[in-house]
Amino acid sequence: MAKLLRITTVPESLRTLLNGQLTFMRANGFEVYAASAPDNSPADLEGCPHFALPLTRRITPLRDGWAIWKTYRLLRRLRPALVHTHTPKAGLVGMVAAWLARVPVRIHTVAGLPLTEKKPVVRMLLRWAEKLTYACATAVWPNSHSLANYIRQNLYDGPKLRVISNGSSNGIDTGYFSTTPVLVRRAEALRRQLTIPPEAFVFVFIGRMVRDKGLDELILAFRSLVYLNRDVRLLFVGDYEERLNPVRSDTKELISTHSHISWVGYQADVRPYLQLADALVLPSYREGLPNVLLQAGAMQRPVIATDIVGCRDVVEPGKTGLLVPPKDPVALREALRQLLTNPEQGKQMGLNARRRIEHLYRQEDLWQALLQAYQDALAAA
Fold first, then answer.
1. Who is most buried in 251, 280, 307, 361, counting CB within 10 A?
2. CATH fold of the domain at 181-360
């Protein structure tokens, strides 16, 4: 039985980004282990042993060197046949340590590049880190075709690069993300709880509450939209991150005080909020392949997203949603207005989105493709 170690920077990624995948690999012949920064949650990691590593999402050279050493020691003790990393810091630490430990198969999944939104000096440092990660890996798997194209043009163009199936880190469970009578009732109760009028059109944002998600532009666009139509609401689902890339203080203030805006914090189950909403908005500056777009599409909701890497893989403009330029609140307002004033068009987009998600991003298909890729890599090692 081959040993497989999955490493992410924070433990939440093991639970959310890879939900169900660890169990699937165990059922298909792998002895699965997980590692990340210390895990304070009592929730089980699908029965897999978890190892704490001194990982942080910030740039901390001394601590990162210590993390490489601790990861190397772990690998020498476990002796896995395959190490698979996710997220930039886990990728750098895990791939360097796995190379030093001579792990036969070293895979890094790229799910977005923070360097694209950094200042020149930091961008240069992160670019170097990405290139070192790829050099130490035996395989580099971007989670979308547009991200793979960006990497080929700017970072690495070689045989290690491959997109598994149609992209995504974990696919989408289309059975779980589907409309049911129970979800409809939960959504109706939430609407009453949030005092959203029955006739109001609701846009929802789901994700980390940080500047790179385009929240400043979204607030500007929505405020001007409210002047045109009062029967509209904006709902935020997610937690603020104050230490990394925080939103502007005036944006945060408006989210808290505006009468047409609601914020409910992080929610483990986002389905009732997608069911409540008429459309999803994701005005990000950078992405890999956003899970929330798959979730919204599976729930038959149209989306408004930025025309960037990852989003353009999922959204067919005019068919499953709308794409707008990043950092453009005027274009974003017009897209919001288009869906607000054409609800039937939005409903048709939602139906089209469900069909597209079922065709391209079913979780079972992605897991089978990933399993085959593991088996092929081990056979070739």
1. 280
2. Rossmann fold (3.40.50)
